[in-house]
Amino acid sequence: MMIDRDRKRLLRQQAEARRSALPESERRVKSETICRGAIRYLAEEPALLSGGRALFVYLPFRTELDVSPLMQWGWSRGIPVAVPRTNTLSKEMEPVIISSMEEVELSGPWGIREPKAECPRLQELDQIGCIVMPGLAFDDQRRRLGYGGGYYDRFLAGFERQCLPLPVRIALAFDVQIIPEVPEEKHDYRVDVLITESVMIR
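-> structure tokens emitted (202 positions)
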């Protein structure tokens, strides 16, 4: 287990270095391309976000892929868009509905943007139709290497505790974030669809 953790730590450092090495202008263009791919996928699977089900998406920070074009697409179609609010004590997160980026502030832990306090919490987990999961690295088996906090794995485990089906999980990543193999532990959740600027894996 310690070997896996050491390996994960090294892979995280390497993946973040590769992503950070992309020029900002290149990240912006590729982010837009990848978001268009995600929009095409969601448009082809309209049942995922039908009936008022929400799109749960992260708020990017540092050199993460900018998912704001996907959020704007959701708002323009009347799709509820939820983002995480984290509790650093319990190491859990809850989905909170926002209707624009004006409802986001820079008060979250680690410099991550979070919804303002007055934004409403999404009451039931089964109101989520699709989750866009962040990550540092992925492989062609759709394994995901997160940041090590376990927030998303614990969040998804909540569905299973309530005997709810898991929502479709998609990941948007740059090609440089794809590695030969991500170490996987039993509590890790894979994504269903992985979209980069050059490929869609499902």
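The longest strand covers residues 81-87.
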